[in-house]
Amino acid sequence: MRRGHKRRKDCNEEKSGQSELSEKHEANNSKIFMFLRKLRLYRQQCSRTYFLYLVTLAIVLLYAITSTFHREQKPLDQKDKYFVHIDHPIILWWTTYGGKSDENITCGEVQCRVSVDRSLKSHNDTQAIIFYGTSLELADLPLPRNPRHIWALKHEESPKNNDFMFSHEEIVSLFNYTSTFKRQSDYPLPTQYLPNLDYLLVSTMPFVHVDSIFVVDVKTKSRLRKSENLAPVLYVQSDCGASSDRDEFVKLLQEFIPVDSYGECLHNKDLPDHLRFDIAKSMSGMHHDDFHKLAAKYKFTLAMENAVCDDYITEKLWRPLRLGSLPIVFGSPKVKDFLPSNKSAILVSDFSSVKELAEFLKELDANDEKYKDFFDWKSAHRISNQFLVSHMEARDWGHFSAVQKNSKKFHSHMAGFDCFICRKIHDIQKAHARNKSPVSHSATIDHYGCPAPKRFNASGHFGVYDKWWAEPWFYSKYLAKAFRKYYDNNQHSFNHEDLTALARKLRKEDENG
């Protein structure tokens, strides 16, 4: 009995020991489980902390990058406390004219680097981009635009050379500075084809180029008319169908007075082969002494521009004035402001009809004294128009002149405009260096804008609206509006087809009201 009791007691003790051991194991397992759980939680917390650390770091970096970007993109007319002076800023010609190449220029006390290399668009030293208007395409602009870049337009040519694109506010207002034929332009060129005042005068000074080798006196002109079978009036144009409708006017004039037409337009007389445009495929013949001698034989020369726009004046006016042939002028409505005297040219706009003009020409042709009155300024070696004199004196470019007071810094207006922009860049840098805001400047429609083309009526009066004739102007108007839709909404991925499609849509909307 005692043994049995003892065995049961031992067995109970053994079971109790096993139970205690089991409880210890469970306790240990529970501790291990808790430890592993805490470890997992710790790792998760570390991951979240690490993730938050990365996010925070990314935000800081993004802020730093965007802050720097916005400092770099600060508009021209705002202060920039992070300004860094550039000794030789780059002027990039995005679209250019023939012969333009890279060069370093010195403009008084400042210098710039001029380049045609488009890869420099994003270079830190690039501070200005110049666009030559004739070759500019709206789908080819350097967009998105860096607001710190000066944009400048150089377009001294006819509005027809880029389908009247710059006749619209939407395009002209893109540019900070301009150089056009308009006197309102920042670097105006209404006398771009007049090298100096000496060019117009028959000089008696031995050290000045003498143009009297071309000038023919009125009696000799009358004699040559018969001996060489010349008409009273000369017309030389090969750009036919111009927007000014000049060919139509000349055709009307020929009904009342003979006109010798040497160009491809209304052609009725041949130039010598070495002067012909269709053979040489260039305008070099128009600069040849033989052409000047021929043109000087005529009493009257039709000086008719290919577009009607304020201050658009070309060699068509200045050449006959130089050669002593009385110009019959049509083009700029404000051409009188630049004539050498108030009696030095005949203006088409002064006559109510082409017939009236023809009668006046016949009157002058028959009266040598009345004809010579138009050249008193030339024989007196004096330009009485002080506006013209002041304008020529104020220009900083041109050829050497024996009669002008001020010497010129530049031989050409192309070089002059480069330095004009270079100085503007350095002016902006000086303002930033003084912690001042540069003066904001943008072009307006007055810097170039030309009206829609019109036509002559049957009597030779100008001003007839013809929808078909004016179509290029309206086409460019809606193309300009389409471009600004993209540009103003910061949409930069578009091509010419996109622009024309949107232009058609906008035009249709306007037409439908």
Characterise the protein shown here.
The protein is of the alpha/beta class and 513 residues long. It has two domains: 90-190 and 419-511, no CATH class; 211-394, 3-Layer(aba) Sandwich (Rossmann fold), CATH 3.40.50.11660. It contains 14 helices and 13 strands. It has helices at 2-72, 169-172, 218-227, 246-253, 277-280, 289-295, 315-323, 354-366, 368-372, 376-379, 386-394, 413-433, 471-488, 496-511; strands spanning 90-95, 103-107, 110-115, 126-132, 150-155, 177-180, 233-235, 259-261, 300-304, 326-330, 346-347, 455-456, 462-464. The chain is globular, with a radius of gyration of 39 Å. It starts with a helix and ends with a helix.
Reconstruct the topology from this structure.
Layout: H1 2-72, E1 90-95, E2 103-107, E3 110-115, E4 126-132, E5 150-155, H2 169-172, E6 177-180, H3 218-227, E7 233-235, H4 246-253, E8 259-261, H5 277-280, H6 289-295, E9 300-304, H7 315-323, E10 326-330, E11 346-347, H8 354-366, H9 368-372, H10 376-379, H11 386-394, H12 413-433, E12 455-456, E13 462-464, H13 471-488, H14 496-511
Parallel strand pairs: 1-3, 1-4, 4-5, 5-6, 7-8, 7-9, 9-10, 10-11
Antiparallel strand pairs: 2-3, 12-13
Helix pairs in contact: 13-14
